[in-house]
Write a structure and sequence with these properties.
335 residues, alpha/beta, Rossmann fold, Dihydrodipicolinate Reductase, domain 2, 9 helices, 28% strand
């Protein structure tokens, strides 16, 4: 392949520049700011740096990685696909489901790879947790609870639901192997008018499983924790502590009374590979083999559908919103 370009070398883009440079695939970096250009030259001194995305579309690179603010994703990804480039766009793919669907259709028409940066799906700890769930180690999943909390970075172009929750939604949909049929979300805007700083989202699946996603960038400490409660066992993945713990505990019913069966928990080992490095490797592999990556365009659309429905519920102060049947039919999308 002729290598790739990264568009955007800011807060997150610099990590993509570093990884793709170390993997040997980086040929071009585009950033409109002097600070971004300086960062790119420091991280990849021999790589060409430009300030206009048109120079990327006109170049001979095979693929483009988009790491700009989310409101620019659609136009940039569309231009890249129209120029015949494969695309990896940071999450969320776009800020509307309709724009995401347009990109997926365009990628299919042009036979281009379209991938979204749901980096948590490449985390070795999450992969190991999914193995535990899929193997039946936990029994039947009862409910899922995910917290993603910190102080900042406060965005202006999107609320905390669209900024933080895509990671959790993506993993939960993968774990449940399907879509919820109802979503409800509530939250509050305390720093900027009409931009929620805190949201709680409830997903209800047709097998009775509920998932709760609590996200906030207005929190006194950082917490990134996923809890899965099964009929036999429970598990927690703590991305801050880098721990996956399996609890052999549940609730029995004895003589008509519920009795908790407790356990101290056992640490489950998992690999220490950098999730972003694994994501970058997956994109390069998809470009080379032409096989759809784990977090492909359809994966992005499923997450966008949930986010958009959650946003509608958020606007109506938490009123539950049903997903249309076509949004969660397993016959239409491969999970």
């Amino acid at each position: 392949m002729n290598g790739l370009a990264v568009v955007g070398c800011g807060h997150w883009g610099k990590n993509l520049v570093r990884n793709f440079h170390e993997l040997g695939g980086l040929r071009l970096v585009c950033d409109s700011t002097a600070s971004g250009q300086q960062t790119a030259r420091r991280l990849a001194p021999e790589v060409r740096v430009v300030d206009d995305a048109a120079q990327v579309w006109d170049s001979n690179v095979d693929a483009v990685v988009i790491a700009t603010p989310a409101e620019a994703h659609f136009e940039l990804a569309k231009a890249a696909l129209q120029a015949g480039k494969d695309v990896l766009a940071e999450k969320p793919l776009t800020l509307t489901y309709e724009h995401g669907a347009e990109l997926v259709q365009l990628a299919n028409e042009r036979r281009r790879i379209l991938m979204v940066g749901h980096v948590l799906e490449y985390h070795p700890g999450v992969s190991r947790l999914l193995e535990l769930v899929n193997s039946g180690e936990l029994g039947s999943v009862r409910y899922i609870c995910s917290n993603r909390l910190s102080l900042g970075k406060v965005r202006r172009e999107k609320n905390v639901l669209w900024s933080f929750a895509p990671h959790d939604v993506a993993v939960i949909l993968r774990m449940m192997r399907g879509m919820p049929f109802q979503v409800a979300a509530c939250g509050g805007a305390y720093v900027q008018p009409n931009i929620a700083d805190v949201t709680v989202t409830h997903l209800l699946f047709d097998n009775g499983v509920r998932a709760h996603i609590y996200v906030s960038w207005l929190h006194p400490f950082k917490e990134q924790k996923l809890v899965v409660v099964g009929s036999k066992k429970m598990a927690t993945f703590d991305d801050v502590a880098k721990e996956l713990v399996l609890y052999d505990q549940h609730v029995d019913v004895r003589d008509g009374e519920p009795v908790p069966v407790k356990d101290k928990g056992t640490n489950v080992p998992f690999g220490d590979d950098e999730p972003l490095r694994l994501e970058c490797e997956a994109f390069l592999r998809a470009v080379r083999t032409r096989e759809a990556p784990l977090t492909d365009g359809q994966s992005a659309l499923r997450v966008l559908k949930v986010l958009q429905v959650a946003q509608r519920s958020l606007i109506t102060n938490g009123a539950p919103v049903p997903l249309p049947i076509e949004a969660f039919s397993l016959t239409q999308v491969a999970l």
